[in-house]
Structures are given as structure tokens and as C-alpha cells.
Amino acid sequence: MENGNLKLAIQKKGRLSEKSLELLKLCGLDIENYSERLIVSAKNHKLDLLFLRDDDIPEYVQDGVADIGIVGEDVVYEKQANITVSEKLGFGKCKLMIAAPSNGMPESLEDLNGKTIATSYPNILKLFLNANNLQAKIIQISGSVEIAPSLGVADLICDIVSTGNTLRMNKLNKSFNVFDSEAVMISNNDLKKNEEKYAILQDLIARMRSVLSAKKSKYLMMNIPKNSLEEITRIIPSLKSPTVLHLADEASLAVHAVIPADRFWSIVNDLKAAGATGILLLPIENMIF
Ligand code: ATP
Ligand code: MG
Prior knowledge:
Blueprint: E1 6-11, H1 17-26, E2 39-41, E3 47-52, H2 57-63, E4 68-72, H3 73-79, E5 84-88, E6 94-101, E7 116-119, H4 122-131, E8 137-140, H5 148-151, E9 156-161, H6 165-169, E10 172-181, E11 183-187, H7 195-216, E12 217-225, H8 229-235, E13 243-246, E14 252-260, H9 264-273, E15 277-283
Parallel strand pairs: 1-3, 1-4, 7-8, 7-9
Antiparallel strand pairs: 2-3, 4-11, 5-11, 6-9, 6-10, 12-14, 12-15, 13-14
Bound molecules: adenosine-5'-triphosphate (ATP) and magnesium ion.
């Protein structure tokens, strides 16, 4: 289907699907509910969405079946496709780790020598072992890697860990960190040659940056006694100087500032102690620099 639209591949069903669609919607794209269709066009943009298995996305982008794709870095590096990583997207964060049963915990990396490790990421594991000069046998398993040690198939596993619940259920413990992953935007290496499509990608990335930085920030508003302005300004962790507004009540001021979202709870008591009242914290939808 060559209609000049930029073709973006996202995971059809899995851990990245919902967040990928949410990000695209926050970027202002009007995407109808896709139900079971393979391709859906955005109603208000020159963009087609392709819904695929995540394992296939790097290769499809490499071969130009899709122009760009959203996929985990783990899959990008495992597939070793010839593509460009254009932007980190801040969601789908997880770690690829080596884990072992309690009675077989390695104490140092050298203890991995001679061991058998089960994984669905043989390429990333091989690179890790080579980089550390280690000799271990890799057994490739496509799912439920965590049961391999109890089946006697492997001594250790190398798998995705986020909360550690799956490991605990299988009586395994984390040992070494192999790879940190998050969702990334990847693009076909030749996309630059297509000026029109490349411009659509640049526009999309600019929108994504705006959405991602807005998520990290919040809009803080409060009223303060006039004489505590200096102290309040010191407490507010803002890159720019806060906005100060006069109120009808001449003894008070209103102060507004954009702050890092995760700092709010660490400053709220100091703000109150300095006399701030009516403290409001609002979400920001977009931030353009
Ligand atoms: P598919 O059917 O599309 O092949 P899958 O089962 O291979 O799906 P998922 O389990 O949906 O893949 O994971 C997709 C990606 O999400 C992984 O490649 C990884 O980057 C990320 N991911 C995996 N586990 C987690 C987790 N627990 N928390 C956050 N992100 C994760
Ligand atoms: Mg997969």
C-alpha cells in the first residue's frame, strides 16, 4: 500500500501495545479502534499504523515494509537488524538479568564459566559473555524460561525482570544485570532519502518529545504572603524563575512554576512552612521548547 503515508509498526498485542497507542494519541493523532485489522490510518495525519508481533518489527523496518517502529531495545539488540534508533520513549522499562536458584547463586561473574544458561535472548547473552571473557553454554528457549532450572535443563536463566514476582514464584534470585531496556522509536536507514516521509517522522518525534517532557513536569500554583517570596523561590525546584502575580489582597501573591513531577512531595511541607496556601499541582499536556 504506497500512499505516501509514513508507515509505523507497533506491537499488536503485548506489553508495549497500549502505551504505544496512548503516546500516539497524546501526540494528537486520531486513531480509530483498530479491532483486528492489520493496518489502520490516522484520520488526521499522513500516518499508517501496522500492528505486528514485536519480534518482527526490527526486520520489517530494516526491509522497508514499515518505515518506522516502536519496539523494546531488548528486541532491537537481539535481532541485530540494520536500523536506526531515533528516540528513546521512556516506557516499557525492564532489565534483562541473570537469575539462579538459591543453592546455585554465582558469587562472581567468573562463576558463570562452564554453566548452562537458558534464555530467549541468545544474542544479547552471547555479547555479554564475550565482553566479560566468559565461557558458558547458552540454551535458547522461546517462552517460560524461568522453569528451565527446575526442569534440570539449565543452571541459570537470563530473562526480563521487572518486579521480580515471576522469579520469586520459581524460587530464583537476581544475580547480574545484562541489559537495560526501554521502548524506542526505530527507523529505516534510508528514510532520510524520502524527504516527505522523513519530515513526517521529524514532526512526530518533536510531538513525542513535547509529550514526554510534559509528563515529567507539573504545573505548581499557590498563594503566598508577600514577604516570603524570596524563601518560596528558593524552595521551588524550577529551571526558570517562577511567575509572580498580584492578588486583590495586597499582602499576598500568587506564584506559578513548572517543576519536576517527582519533586512535589519533597517540597510541599517546606512550602507550607513558608506560608503557602491553596497549593495546586496540575498536569501539563504538552511542552514546546
Ligand atoms: P509478541 O507476541 O508481540 O511477540 P512478546 O510476548 O514477545 O510479544 P511482551 O511480553 O509483550 O512480548 O513484551 C514486549 C516488550 O515489552 C519486551 O520486548 C520488553 O521490551 C518490554 N517488557 C517486557 N517485560 C516487561 C515488563 N515486565 N515491564 C515493562 N516492560 C516489559
Ligand atoms: Mg515477542
